[in-house]
Amino acid sequence: MPDIVKLFLLISQLWVLAACTNLPYYAQAIGGHFDVVHRSQPIQRLIANPDVDPQLKQSLTKVMQLREFASRELKLPDNLSYTSYADLERPYVVWNVFASPELSLKLKEWCFVQVGCVNYRGFFSQAQAEQYAEELRNEGYDVHVGGIRAYSTLGWFSDPVLNTFIGYSEMNLARLIFHELAHQVVYVPDDSVFNESFATAVEHEGVRRWFEQGGTPSQQVLLTSRQEREALFIELVFKHRERLRAVFHSNVSDAEKRAQKARIFEEMRAEFLHLRTQRADFGAYDQWFAQPLNNARLATVSIYTQWVPAFQAILEHNGHDMVRFFENVIQLSKLSKDDRQVALQKAAAGHQQWMMVKRGSN
């Protein structure tokens, strides 16, 4: 079914639901995606066009190689996603708003048609995102607004390559394409951490294989260094998140909780600066730490990484066979959320019988 037909079908569904949903929000989402679709052009046509910038052609050619690798080696969906290109003339495709209470690490959820409940609210306009974020701040929430360079329509539409990430390095292009295609394999409504952690695990496996097959020694060194750096960053964030969690669950007064929260953020920033003196490449996180630290900002890290060790253990258990791995993940997706978390905890801990849990209903 052509994407434009799917889009009009979705519009008609949302119109029926207008009485019980935020129609203006859906309208901006549909309008924003329609603009992306409207700007898309087949990559092969652009590569064949002598007037197209040679550097863009080179990047698009690399994307086509990554796209073929994704289907052949990683068994990711073989469809029209990432076979077209759109220049949006802006640095991000959407801006996501994340929010959590002042004294809690639990992210606020929003529920939508098709995708269920997620831990963010996305806008195709930065101004609209910032306006909504300010409303949440006025309600007392810790808020983070993050520019997003790509998003997945979960196979509903053919996702295009965008100018927002075409300038990425080969490694980052690979990471993004493998990650977003993984969302088309399995997606569980109301479980953002499961979905993003799974896609991140696929991304890591895909990049490892990509550079094993065709990477230079220097690229292998760069990949290893990046993985070590990311592991240190995640360890740093998780350590201080657990300290915050303990404070928020303690019996001290709210005033004392606020004071301890501020102290923990100061100590986290100080530890980062110390790590930066030991590893020059830790400067990659300068921009992350340059922004105000709050509960929402820390919680976004766990969305993408919390269950990665569990998925990596499942992948290892299946001998890195992607088909069998995906079958296991689909089995997990059919469990209730509680049972799914128990299974993932067991997998992360190295239990061989991690799937031996009572089946529930999602």
* Largest sheet composition: 3 strands, mixed
Task: Please work out how many helical segments DSSP would assign.
Answer: 14
Span between termini: 28 Å
Total beta-strand segments: 8
Could you estimate the helical fraction of the residues in percent?
55-70%
What proportion strand?
5-15%
- Report the C-alpha radius of gyration, rounded: 21 Å
* Structural class determined from secondary elements: mainly alpha
* Principal-axis shape: globular
Low-confidence stretches: 1-21, 358-362
Notes on the structure:
The protein has 362 residues and is mainly alpha-helical. Among the domains are: 3-167, no CATH class; 308-348, no CATH class. Helices cover 59% and strands 9% of the residues. It has 14 helices and eight strands. It has a three-stranded mixed sheet. β4 and β5 (116-118) form a beta hairpin. The longest helix is centred in the middle third of the chain and has 32 residues, at 217-248. 31% of the residues are buried.
Summarize the SSE layout with pairings.
Layout: H1 3-16, H2 23-39, E1 41-42, H3 43-48, H4 54-73, E2 84-86, E3 94-101, E4 110-112, E5 116-118, E6 121-123, H5 126-138, E7 141-148, E8 161-162, H6 170-182, H7 192-214, H8 217-248, H9 254-278, H10 286-290, H11 295-305, H12 308-317, H13 322-333, H14 337-348
Parallel strand pairs: 2-8
Antiparallel strand pairs: 1-2, 3-6, 3-7, 4-5
Helix pairs in contact: 1-2, 4-6, 6-7, 7-11, 7-12, 8-9, 8-11, 12-13, 12-14
